[in-house]
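=== Per-residue structure ===
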Amino acid sequence: MGVLENKVAIITGGASGIGKAIALLYAAEGAKIVVSDIDEKGSNETVDDIKSKGGEAIFVKADTSKSADCKNVVEQAVEQFGALHIAVNNAGIAGPMGLIGDYPIEGWDKTIAINLSGVFYGMRYQIPAMMESGGGSIVNVASILGKVGTPNSSAYVASKHGVIGLTEAAALEYAQKSIRVNSIGPGYIETPLLTNNLDDDTLKSLVGLHPIGRLGKSEEVAELALWLNSDKASFVTGAYYNVDGGYLAQ
């Protein structure tokens, strides 16, 4: 029996990368999966992969920057599977690069809307559904850049710092209501978000930022999220765990 047997889990950004790895792992551990993303093709591939291995999954298209979409994802999870126990708020974008004095306003607004407001909207509707289901666990995907800064990515850095603060606030509010809320901080991970936007030389330079000597893998992030969303982490809430090959230890 898997550690998430008969649990219902929402995974945002589940079409690829970290989100897909989490969805596949959670399904393998017995959870019923709701894949949420704007990418229909990738999401359906995730769902098909889960079903091909005997798991249960549905896809609900959603833009996390829209509160109505986030509400609908939760409603569909409860309608299809009868409850909600787990959520991983993972959907995010890198946003534009640029100095703050030249930063595009629309780029700032979009990045904050998806990366930060999207996490709030998710929890806004996930938490009441979890309370109706007898409790639950939420993992919000932040970043190493939720703890430190880097030049030319002000919107991303600010949004991920905000995710950690929002996680801590939610954890305190619901600590005595059977809902745990934690965040994780991946280092640079081999995902489409990274590999589709950076050239080989830049990717090689990123490797050098990690004392372990390589980029991370989505599956490694998924394992940390799984532990936090399982009963094995029953005394853990309001925490931030980095999975970064030593990046933040420097």
